[in-house]
Amino acid sequence: MAVQKFVSEVVKNINITPTVFELYLKPSIPFPFEAGQFLMIDAPNSENPEKPLKRSYSVASPPEADLICLCIKRLAFGRGTPFFKDLKPGDQLKTAGPFGRFTYKTPPSKNVFFIATGTGISPFHSMMFSQGFKKTPPQKIFIAIGARTEDEILYYDKMGTQPNVVWIPCVSQPTERWKGFKGRVTDYIRGLSDLDYLNTEFYLCGNGDMIKEVKMILMDTKGVAKEHIHQEIYY
């Protein structure tokens, strides 16, 4: 799809975890995109006001939604974070998109395994609730999401409760109350044995180190072909 430049208006800014918020935007023009793609937004640059910061975010909402939803992590030292976290309804943003080729490609005869860290689950949320996915769903859906603490796990209520979904939250620094998997996503994938690897396609999104390690595990120890692994790295 052709890239468009347009203005988007902030409709809602909602905190969903202690460090993550959802930003809902209304585009000024029709904005067709494929689930899994991302857009870019201009943010003020205090070091060079004439050259705005360009920030890219995967769209978390499906293409059929009325509003664009972005799932954004508040970074302690992020240059764009102070701007985005304080946006209010009615604020205007210079926006461009869609970008990227990280789109859903799996035939309905196979399983799909979404593996994410943090807000890397955004494109998978868009994919799962898109009409295309609903019309030709995979045989089974596995979702492994990594978080540092259990209060940072995203979208269980929306994704983990869906039919035919196996939801695996992986928490690396849990409290004593946590009863789920303790460790990183990579630890879980490395120890996983009862999966039909040859009939499963993998989608990886999030931290670059996680993606590199999971790819190595899948290809070197699980026998997964490279063409059955799709990735989107968050920097």
How would you describe this structure in keywords?
235 residues, alpha/beta, Elongation Factor Tu (Ef-tu), domain 3, Rossmann fold, 2 domains, 6-stranded antiparallel β-sheet, 6-stranded parallel β-sheet, 6 helices, 35% strand
What's the short story on this structure?
It is globular, with a radius of gyration of 18 Å. Helices cover 18% and strands 35% of the residues.
Give the arrangement of secondary structure elements.
Elements: E1 4-15, E2 20-27, E3 38-43, E4 53-58, E5 68-73, H1 81-85, E6 92-99, E7 111-117, H2 122-128, H3 131-135, E8 141-147, H4 156-160, E9 165-171, E10 181-182, H5 185-191, E11 200-207, H6 208-221, E12 229-234
Description:
With 235 residues, the chain is α/β, with parallel strands linked by helices. The protein has two domains: 4-98, Translation factors (Elongation Factor Tu (Ef-tu), domain 3, Beta Barrel); 111-234, Nucleotide-binding domain of ferredoxin-NADP reductase (FNR) module (Rossmann fold), CATH 3.40.50. It is built from six helices and twelve strands. It has helices spanning 81-85, 122-128, 131-135, 156-160, 185-191, 208-221; strands at 4-15, 20-27, 38-43, 53-58, 68-73, 92-99, 111-117, 141-147, 165-171, 181-182, 200-207, 229-234. It has a six-stranded antiparallel sheet. It has a six-stranded parallel sheet with strand order 10-9-8-7-11-12. Strand 8 (141-147), helix 4 and strand 9 form a beta-alpha-beta unit. It is globular, with a radius of gyration of 18 Å. The model has no long low-confidence stretch (mean pLDDT 95).
